[in-house]
Amino acid sequence: MSSWRITKVGKAPPLADALCIEGLPGIGNVGKVALDFIVDETHALKIFEITSDSFPNSVFVNEQNLVDLPKIEVFVKKGNGGSRDLILLGGDVQPIDEGSSYGFSEKILDILCSFKVKDIVTLGGIGLGFVPKKPKVFLTGNSKGMISEFMQKEINNKLYGVVGPIVGVSGLLLGLSARRNMRAIAILAETYGHPMYLGVKGSKEILKVLNRKLNLHLSLEKLESDIKQIENEMLYRTEDLQQMAKMGVSSIKGKGEANYIG
Q1: Residue 15, phi then psi, degrees to nearest 5
Q2: Sequence spans of domains, the chain
Q3: Which helix (DSSP H) or strand (DSSP E) does residue 1 occupy?
Q4: Do β-strands 19-23 and 119-128 pair in parallel, antiparallel, or remain unpaired?
Q5: Contact at 8 Å (CB) between 150 and 95?
Q6: How far does CA 53 lie from the centroid of its chain?
Q7: Phi, psi (degrees; rounded to nearest 5) at 228
Q8: In DSSP terms, which residues pair with 98 in a beta bridge?
Q9: How many other C-beta atoms lie within 10 A of the C-beta of residue 240?
Q10: 21-72 pLDDT per residue, tens
Q11: CA 59, CA 55: separation in Å to the nearest integer?
Q12: Are residues 258 and 128 in contact, defined by beta-carbon separation less than 8 angstroms?
């Protein structure tokens, strides 16, 4: 049975009508890149660190050449200028199996309920067999009302028959939260479905949606600068990755298909 070590590392200010945004590693790391950018740009306060024996059995070497256990972190950011209070969930990893994913998601919902959170947004990627020039954004969830609130002209909410199952915490938070009368949506952006590909263009499209809807005051100029730097670092890999896809990498779907993996 999984054990969850939740360490309080900061004191949250009083929150009112807070919205939770989740962005953990998954296909293209689309959600993680977007969530990490929000945390950095808003200078959010970290309040919890979560470690577990249900996370991968490894450690990460940090910039100080020391090691860190894999962890998931919870941040808070008070709203200002018309923006909403936020609880931000991000980290290095996801739970490694189905049972622990359920247990972890329930534990997160317990934390959110303690802050009286009623609305959740999860972020992720839709894996394609090619690199999209301009990733499309899709929207689904457990509440038609919340979906309508977040709909924008460039978003597609017709996912049935197009996108496969939403796997992992990003999906389970949508389903399990409904049992607690919480509203939840997933904002998903297309990306190349290779495990070595970083879907920064998809992250950018998601951040545009959140920036407009939530008045996050994110610097899109800074976002553009960061994305160009990341893309330059990985440009040399792209042709090799596309060649691998043509050779039949089993986890990649055909060019006309889409599948959400995590």
Answers
A1: -115, 145
A2: 4-260
A3: none
A4: parallel
A5: no
A6: 22
A7: -60, -40
A8: none
A9: 11
A10: 999 999 999 999 999 999 999 999 999 999 999 998 888 888 899 999 999 9
A11: 10
A12: yes
* Other CB atoms within 10 Å distance of the CB of residue 132: 17
Which position has the token pair 């990985």? 234
Strands 4-8 and 86-91: unpaired
| Angstrom distance (rounded) from CA 165 to CA 115 | 29
CB 18 within 8 A of CB 86: yes
Q: How far is CA 118 from the centre of its chain?
A: 18
Tallying the residues shown for the chain, one arrives at: 262
* Structure tokens, 141: 């969830």
Please tell me the pTM assigned to this model: 0.87
Q: Are 189 and 128 spatial neighbours (Cβ–Cβ below 8 Å)?
A: no
Q: For residues 223 and 37, is the Cβ–Cβ distance under 8 A? A: yes
Which tokens belong to 235?
Answer: 């440009």
Q: Does domain 4-260 have CATH number 3.40.50.10900?
A: yes
